[in-house]
Design goal:
single chain; mainly alpha; Serine Threonine Protein Phosphatase 5, Tetratricopeptide repeat; 5 helices; 70% helix; 0% strand
Length: 107
């Protein structure tokens, strides 16, 4: 899991540097590792999906971004003690979720 965390952190850094393709690759790798190690319904997997969705949204890949946001939301909707803090964080950070899709539904 330490490798996945490092990949995720590096992906976030690449996003902040504007290197979005590199960020996507690193975040995808982190997601795969965390999903394999922790299971598909783990809150860390939801965080990975949310981060990946944000970069894809920045790249204009709105349908794919929406898919990752929706999967992350499904995990947070499980309403377990482990996912409650994540659900609160998502509401604070991204209250509109994928509202940007409206004008770009054909992409």
């Amino acid at each position: 899991m330490e490798v996945a965390e490092d990949l995720s952190n590096l992906g976030t850094l690449m996003r902040e540097m504007g290197k979005l393709p590199a960020a996507v690759e690193l975040l995808r790798r982190a997601l795969l590792l965390n999903r394999a190690a922790l299971g598909a319904q783990h809150p860390t997997v939801a965080l990975d999906m949310d981060a990946l969705g944000a970069v894809l949204q920045e790249q204009g890949q709105l349908r794919e971004a929406e898919s990752y946001y929706a999967k992350a939301l499904q995990i947070t909707d499980l309403d377990t003690p482990a996912t409650r803090p994540l659900a609160v964080r998502r509401m604070q950070v991204r209250p509109a979720g994928t509202s940007a899709l409206g004008a770009y539904a054909d992409r």
